[in-house]
Amino acid sequence: MIGLETLTTTQLSAWVRQAKALTHQGQVAERIPQLALANPHLFAVHICCSSKKTYSQGDTDCVFSLMSAIKPFLLLYLLEQVGAETVFQWVGISPSDAPFNSLEQLIADNGRPRNPMINSGAITLADKLPGKNAGDRHTRLCQWLNQLALCHLKLDEVMLASVRSTGSQANRAITQYLTQAGYVKNPEIALDTYEKICCFSGQVEDLARLGLLLACESEFIKPQHRRIVNSLMLTCGLYKASSQYALRIGLPMKSGISGALLAIVPSQGTVAGYSPALDNIGNPVGAIAFVEALSQGLQLSIFG
Question: Coil, strand or helix: which one is 243?
Fold first, then answer.
């Protein structure tokens, strides 16, 4: 028998040890001063099975900002609010081989965001959230997620101040172009909302609990919306490395430049990792190495 449920503590410890040994190959994100302070050798993993069985190891008390790992849940929320037909009038579904904050690609695509997992797509969706201002919008989304997933996300004000201290030039330019192209109506609110939701913070267990919304059947989430989000995570969730990891790991995944990583094992459960040292694409080295060992060892790939 194989599958997430069959994981032993011996396997878990061995794969964590292997993955942690690779963190020296990465570097913490430096574009946001607060992220640059992270210890590159931190490593945490939390696994939630659909049976409610859990596994945990490493620096699990660490609180970190989800950054781009929140993007699948921004998409899920809007799918539930307005439906797929409306959402995909605003953003595309195509993978990108450009960096996640590329203005050049947006210009080449005539201002239409390529997918919801890159900055242009998420800023566009932030513009469409219900609520009259950024405070209202991020609060509604946070409450919805905490209620449904039984997690404890909250806005990290220190991280938000650090994000704002950088001036966010790339994201400002993207937002301006989206506005000119007609995809964003309220540029200031859109960018403000986007920055706030990227600063939702929690522990690795909170991220794993969020993942269960995508991994398991729920009376609160439409099955087709889960399928849509998982498909886009598989093809776009790790930026231009997405196709490479679809082959090697075969699971829907999403990373964040804080070192957050979420992997969905449909019908079986979810794997959340935190490992601040990133590769040159912006994906966490240790957490991805762990999920790769886990997926291969327990034959978790959705492709059999």
Answer: helix
